Amino acid sequence: MCIRDRNKNAFTTIQFKGFEGSFIDSKVTNGKRLFYDRYKPFSKPVKYFNKFNSIAEIIIPKAYILKQGWWKVLNLLKDNNIEFSVLKNDSLIIAEEQHIKDFKTKNTPYEGHYLHYNTSINSTSKNIKFKKGDIYIPINQKGARYIMETLEVSATDSFFNWNFFDSILHQKEYYSGYVFEDIAEQLLKDNPEVKKEYDSKLKSDKEFLSNTRAQLDFIYKNSPYYETAHLKLPVYKVY
Questions:
Q1: Residue with the larger pLDDT of the pair 56 and 130
Q2: Is 30 left (phi over 0), alpha (psi -120 to 50) or beta?
């Protein structure tokens, strides 16, 4: 699957058919109104931009798994005749877990939503325990394109970009800096891999080096105390 951007240099020409328009006196206001004269049809060539450049590509998974409880998303899948099954038992499945890495949000609403864009993720493949009632959505069906355009987070019209998963963006648990300092010190001692990554970031990132809060955040987010639901998408990919 490709995430695409319109190619503004490639187009075909089609004949647009319409009616000549003019402004006539309004019978309602004291101004003018637009009027299309159906006795004056016309045809003119217009550019039709129907080619796109690939800006990102993904490997199409065998299926997506949606955690139960996201009823608005599930109802939209039903409305679009998407086939899915419900897990009948708790199941251990190798799947790709996704965390939101970065995104931007529009400053003005569109259709009642503050849309996200430029969304990127970090993903990890692991054995994940899914619960009875979680939703298994196979790709091999007529609605494959709809599934990928909505469940693939970086797609322009993904459910994430349309705010359906915004509750994962709110961190409900946090820490007090003066309390966490001693814990952070011990965490770095006990976890050499985290310490190595932390030291590397201090050397390579000047902004990080000058921001003590960001340094504590880094250690906290790599600790067992970090709220695991924060930024974690309820959508998993199975290959």
A1: 130
A2: alpha
Per residue in 38-48, pLDDT (tens digit) is 999 999 999 99
Strand arrangement, sheet containing 135-138: 85-86, 135-138, 63-66, 235-238, 91-105, 116-130
Helix (H, G, I), strand (E, B) or coil at 220: helix
Q: What is the 3-state secondary structure (H, E, C) of 137-202?
A: EECCCCCHHHHHHHHCCCCCCCCCCCCCCHHHHCCCCCCCHHHHHHHHHHHHHHCHHHHHHHHHHH
CA angle 80, 91, 78 (to 5 degrees): 10
* pTM (whole model) above 0.70: no
Alpha-carbon distance of 10 to 45, in angstroms, equals 15
**In the structure encoding, which two tokens stand for residue 189, read together?**
């001692």
